[in-house]
Input
Amino acid sequence: MATLNRADWYDIARDTNWTPRYASVEEIFPDEMSDAFGLTVEQWEAYDEPFKISYREYVAVQSKKDADAYSVKAALARANFFDKAAPGWISILKMHYGAICLAEYIAVLGEAKMARFGKAPGMRNMATFGSLDEMRHTQIQLYFAHENIHKSRQLDWGLKTYHTQNWAGIAGRAMLDDVILGRDAATMSIMLTFALEQGFTNLQFLGLAADAAKMGDYSFSNLISSVQTDEARHAQIGTAALKVLIANGKKAQAQQAVEIAFWRNWRLFFSLTGPAIDYLTPLEHRHQSFKEFVHEFIVAQFERAIEDLGLDRPWYWDFFLDTTNYYQHSGHLELWFLRQTLWWNPAGGVTPAERAWLEEKYPGWNQRWGRLWDVIADNVQHGRQDKLFPATVPMLCNICGLSIGGIPGQGHHVKGHWTDYGERRYYFCSAPCKWIFDIEQQRYAGHKSIVDRLLAGDIQPGTIDGTLEYMGLFPGERGDDADDYAWARSALPPMNDRSAGHADAAAGL
Amino acid sequence: MQTLPLVCSFEDGCILTLVPVDTGATMDEVARNVAEHFVGRMLPPQPSKVMRVRLQGGSAFLPRQLRVEEAGWQPLTTIEIAYENAAPAANA
Output
């Protein structure tokens, strides 16, 4: 029997906007779950998803993807890559699994909300597949993480992170709650699929898969490619939604949603991917700096996407571009000091050869961050263990949950921002995070970072061990230097030789 | 005497840190307390210079013998520890 081509039946088949008789449209699609912008069902019917696929096709493709990823994993299981890989790369794997596995599960719920409450039939259809995608991403990545759990308990954080009160877990949860679980379907389609997935993770996963292949980690490379190809599809949900919203006079609100989500995602993205690219990836496998990656992929792609839609660059765009020079460096330094609180082992990543690479990529690096690492290296060489850990906590932002960093060697380049609301002071890393809080103070009020919890006496005993246990980190899980401080024992040439020729460039950084 | 948590930056550092200080402490004692978390950990010592305290973005140092309880600060007040005669801060 001849079958119709998909294009001949798809629009009719997926158009499930029935006329309800037993409940009102408002009851079926309440604004707080469906559409904070208040468009009608009829207005949403203009939604045209760019990627059309039937369930039969979806299942066939996904089945093949799973078979490919699992078969490569099985074939390479005896190669013992995990035992032979560079410590920095193993740290990237642990960081990735802990940060991503259950974030994928939260995305399952987000996609499911769009599948149920999206007013556009096309959104509901794409999000149904999106939810199935994210379920697969959760399960397959947990499975891969579990493979080597007998070799390192830190890999258990693929399951643990978002169930603990670890400071990084709190930061991730707060972001995912804000852009996914705590938003209506229409807003979430912008914040999750346009800003987070299309803006960051889709491109990040492309790069990560390529890096893994270069490292010889073909199992992980195939896994990430398998995930990324799904993401490239369902990340398009938001673009189609933005077109509908802009066409119906909601540009200003849509612009604000994009700006909130892009900044929130940038703060978490740099904190993990920045150190991974600039410090943890073995030097011989680096092909570009984090800044180069961000500008070539994130910035160029995002600018093109918002221009195509008729949106504006976010108001903080120049500041954002400037932070690509330094966020990753201050963030890495802070993560290294806080290594006991992590589920991976941060590498110093500042051997003489690595410093030369950093100086080439970030002219002035030696004069700025290199001087700080000199002090740390001197403490390692002289056995001053107490100086290798912080004696207090860094201030954490009440929006992004991260520490507050700037450029060293420039007086007081790092600045705090705050808002007094209710009975307390809320603290922020930057003007954009303060801006997000001030848009809707009641929404964000009550957030308690680890710093707030220490100050409130929530953590008992308030000792380092007590705090680590509160964060769910037990012996065998707490991070330490990935290379056992070998980098600090490398002989360094005098500072003047390291920074020669870069002083002028540094002045313009 | 009570403990007051302050948010602190140190000249040429790159991180804001929470430092609890005694309300009876003088500004000189506050500066030394904050320095413990920066100098010798990630910043080289500059023993010949005098450390002073000012509010974030402030142009004037606070009197060296002023006590915290006299400064009118609330929890999470943000201060900068700078070396006297150092150039004014670049703003982020």
Notes: The longest helix of chain A spans residues 87-117. The interface with chain B takes residues 326, 329-330, 333-334, 337, 369, 371-372, 374-376, 379, 384, 387, 390-395, 403-416, 418, 424-425, 427, 451, 455 of chain A (CB under 8 Å).
